[in-house]
TrEMBL record:
Its cofactor is Zn(2+). InterPro entries: AstE_AspA_cat, Peptidase_M14. CDD domains: M14_REP34-like. It comes from Noviluteimonas caseinilytica. The keyword Transport does not apply. Belongs to the peptidase M14 family. It comes from the Bacteria. Signal peptide: none annotated. Residues 30-306 form the Peptidase M14 domain. This is Peptidase.
Length: 306
């Protein structure tokens, strides 16, 4: 089954060239401010945490600082916890959930962990409420050495010292209705392929690592989030977005092979959250709270099972 209406850019089944990518970029509109929503919030946290600018993006003179928040009293003898949000800029609760966790809960772990939080990996896309960077590249398929996405390359460099030292890396995402109406059709058009609907699951789910699934860790997170919002059920094929459901609310991907953010390090515990913000059963506050609950459960489980 393919969509009946062709994507408005390009020729169906022909990959985009530079002209089509420029046409796509010209259509992108700034809807919100990274400076107001992220940078200003991070600035207010500087009195309690260390903040590092680990890179700076420059797209045609439009610049964005890439900011990381970390424990003030870093101790290399403690386990390191890595948190990322906003890899896809349109996935709002990943950004705001990460910031909410730092503000409300991070200090409770002082002296027990080293915490490194990158709340918004893709600020240009955050402002446009989009999945890709301005080069029409998906950062979450680009986390590898020599990445064509500077957002991804900068994060790989930041996390390099923790590749074999991190205990946890949790990457905060959303699955939205626009995945089906905009982003999957755009991807198919860009790559010259047919667009095949997969459906949007109604609820929260996790994406573990096929090569190292850590099922008990994933279920501990699901149990905590279930107190905040509902968990996505499998579809008629017992799948979520085309992947087999391996446990309640959990699917697995080969994260390293796909160049996903969760595969940057060899952290013992790795997962990707997926919140569903378009559900009539969830508010923006619940979506943020679900991300916070996932973070707390992930850290608590890892500390109990080091």
């Amino acid at each position: 089954m393919t969509t009946s209406t062709p994507y408005p850019i390009g020729t169906p089944l022909q990959p985009w060239g530079d002209a089509e990518k420029q046409q796509w970029r010209a259509r992108q509109v700034r809807h919100r401010s990274h400076a107001d929503d992220v940078v200003a919030v991070v600035d207010r946290l500087r009195s309690r945490f260390d903040v590092t600018e680990y890179g700076r993006l420059d797209y045609d003179g439009e610049t964005f600082p890439l900011l990381a928040i970390q424990s003030r009293h870093w101790d290399d003898t403690l386990p390191t916890i890595l948190v990322t949000g906003g890899v896809h800029g349109y996935e709002t609760s990943g950004v705001h959930g990460a910031l909410q966790f730092v503000d409300q809960h991070a200090e409770a772990y002082a002296g027990r962990i080293n915490l490194l939080v990158v709340p918004c990996v893709s600020p240009w896309a955050y402002e446009r409420i989009h999945r890709w960077n301005p080069l029409a590249i998906d950062p979450n398929r680009s986390f590898r050495d020599g990445s064509p996405a500077e957002e991804s390359a900068a994060l790989v460099r930041l996390f390099a010292p923790f590749r074999d030292r991190a205990l946890v890396h949790i990457d905060l995402h959303e699955t939205t209705d626009t995945d089906e109406t905009e982003f999957r059709p755009a991807l198919a058009a860009r790559d010259g392929k047919p667009s095949t609907p997969e459906g949007i699951p109604d609820g929260f789910y996790l994406v573990g690592d096929t090569e190292d699934p850590q099922p008990d860790f994933q279920q501990a997170i699901i149990a905590a989030v279930e107190q905040v919002t509902h968990i996505a059920p499998p579809d008629a094929k017992h799948e979520i977005i085309g992947s087999p459901v391996v446990a309640h609310g959990v699917i697995n991907y080969p994260v390293k092979a796909l160049g996903l953010c969760a595969g940057i390090t060899n952290a013992r515990y790795r997962t990707t959250t997926e919140v569903y913000p378009d559900s009539p059963r969830a508010t923006p506050e619940q979506c943020n709270a679900a991300q916070v609950a996932a973070l707390r459960a992930a850290i608590d489980y890892a500390l109990a099972h080091p």
